[in-house]
Amino acid sequence: MFDVLGIAPTRDSKVIRRAYAAALKQIDQQTQQAAFESLRAAYERALDWARHAQDALPSVVDVAPASEPVTALEPAQTPDSPEPPADTPAPARAAADFRPQQPQMNVQVRQASGENGRRLARQRARAISQWVQALMQADDQQLASVWTQIDADPALLHLDAAYEMSSALLKALTERPDGRMPLFREASARYGWGQHESRLPGRNTVVPLVQQVEDERAIWRGHHRDYRKEHERVIRRMQRVAKPSWRKARRNLAALHRMHNQVPLWLSLQLPPGRREAYLDAAMRVPRYALVLAAIRAAVRKWWWVVLVAIVLLGAYLDRGKTPSDGKANVPASRYTPTRPLSTLNEQSFTLTPEATRPSGEQVYRIEDPTAPGGGNFQRRLIVPPPVYPFFAELMKQEGTTVISLQIFPSGLVVASVGNPSGSSYLDDAALAAGRLARVEGALPDIVTRVQVPFTFKLTRK
User: Fold this and answer.
1) CATH number for the segment(s) 342-457
2) For 54-93, how does the pLDDT look when each residue is reduced to its tens digit (9 = 90+)?
3) What DSSP string runs through 47-109?
4) Is the full-model pTM beyond 0.70?
5) Which of 66, 144, 299, 427 is most buried by its number of CB atoms within 10 A?
6) Which residues pair with 357 in a beta bridge?
């Protein structure tokens, strides 16, 4: 056991531990499993012997007098054992060699272990190459099955297998990143790409590919959510349609150019191989008429005000020579035709008496005419709808009363005009609009009836 440790027999446990540590550094536990087990067994036996050795064995550890060399262990003489004959010469006692010895490893075992390690390394390299190729060729649904087979491969149980697999996969993704975003995410989670705490001494795990992906992901997250949603829809459309028409390609061309300029690697990982080139080629195959129409639309969007001025001038040119019928701007069009010329009719003013308010909000006025016959069908009434409070007048908290003058013709035509303004143009316009919608019930005389209708505007909350 002490020969395996490379030291002389000793009871000092510290010396035994130092020898075991020195010998352990010279053994590869993965490729030299037999040598490690032999060294461990010798170490444990040496410690056990050092703890339980007795003083009755001085010849093993004690130093003999200088006049007599120290001999090796001999079997103890018992009283019952026969003594050797007197003429038999005593066997020569070999001197024990207490010189420090190196860990004794069989040369053939070392050669076999080295060849075995090289053979395992070649097998591991072949397995890594095959699995990387399988991962690059697998689609999104097959990735889980391939990763399960990789975890069960006995050739990848070595400690360096994970690092070698990570390096080979990173190299393959750098050369062909198109459409490998699911593979990149799974491998990044497995091997800890980009995590500084996972770095090993002398091994830099943050390669340019991973660093560029992280930078572009930060740029992408810095955009607004609506911007990201719009471009993600373009990516899904490009993933779904392999051979687009020129219309679809032109519709997605602007977003494609923006993503290619800002996040080229991130875009390549999202799109299948050759998809971006297919859309660019389709966008170039635009018919001539489409280019002409696009130029016209661009010119109209840029010079829309010129088109608007041209339309206004054309309308003024077509309306030249036309004169208004009566010259009154506030006289609305009516479906009623006067029975006789307006110039031959007499005009008379009457007073209004409020009579009732209908549930719809219409105000009912009775026209006081002493010459009119009595009775339900002959009693003349004026029905006026409620005005709408103007928004801007309510916003500026304007109040007032506008008096509207109404002319009622025998045909039923009602002409409204502002008799007494309130001081607010918004209130006057609202009252005038309500007056034009007034109507008359009952018998109408052959004269023009003029009445004054007040409209009061008052805010309920100030």
Assistant:
1) 3.30.2420.10
2) 444 444 444 444 444 433 334 444 444 444 444 444 444 4
3) HHHHHH--TT-HHHHSPPPTTS--B---PPPPTTSPPPPTTSPPPPPPBP--S-------HHH
4) no
5) 427
6) 363
